[in-house]
Specification:
alpha+beta, single chain
Length: 172
Amino acid sequence: MKLPILLHPDPRLKKSCLAVPDLSDDLRALADDMLETMYDAPGIGLAAPQVGVLSRLIVLDCEKDEDAAPRPLVMFNPEILLASDDPNVYEEGCLSIPDQFAEVTRPDAVKVAWIDQNGNPQEEEFDGLWATCVQHEIDHLNGKLFIDHLKPLKRQMITRKMVKLKRELARA
């Protein structure tokens, strides 16, 4: 089931999320719904707070090659274990901040640990777009948006555009 995506500014997007103590069928269903929502948007990542759920859950699929099979990942309680010293600059966007993009510098590679949908611990190293995306989504779990990495003037400009968009959508 497709879920509504919260738009910035929304106070729920600025809250830190609680760890998932136990996987329930409801949480597994939420992960499936989040994947459907992400693909439909279309996006490459989505965090639970973006759909109004303050739990440490993210979904992502950064497979861009049209010939490759999709690679959806569901991560409960994701945690960055290691980050490279090498920086990577990527123009980021966000489903909660539609049509706004900005260059963000993050570590080029990260090692992440998480629990999968079956309750199994996982660990993997990501680089390039995958590294950027997983860091962006984990930021959401900590109440941080990609615009929080920007200079104040640029962040305020994007926020003003979003306030205007939300006003227009409320009138429609």
